[in-house]
Predict the 3D structure of the following.
Amino acid sequence: PIPLKELLRLEDYSTTRIINTYKVGSDTVTKKQDLPFCPDATDIERLIRVLDTWNNACRTQQLNIDDTARHSRAREVLGGDIQATWDSHISKIAAVDQTNAKFISNCQSFLLNFLPSNSYLVQDEYFRNTTKPFNLSCFAAASRLRLINNLTVYLPGSGNKPLYDTETQMKNAFYKLML
């Protein structure tokens, strides 16, 4: 499971610059953004965070990368063996299934190369049985819980839904961590 105690801060990640050029009418628009880079699969949380950040950055107001390009260009934020595994995985997916709407489910099937199929249930069980570490502030614990909840949609077995769907469920989970 992704632990409540942060092992590597997002600020400590290495980054890569992504550049996308596209046409709007007769104008050519170039957008650039620095995104976190995942060099290997030793840190699963980093891998999932990089894929999530990539997915969010591809939106129209940022990089404006759609469908098949979103899938094929994701390799730019992956390194080493992960890049080769991603390329192999994407080559097996029909072009008609390489859509924005299916990006998360395609990531889930990709992550099966590194995670067990019941990862979502393992993460849920982890939160049922863990408490807030003493040296972690309440604010940091709440922020971490929210981040991990947002990342759980990428875990195999999640059905594209987070552990906690509502604010009430998030609050209850947070209070349970305090016990």
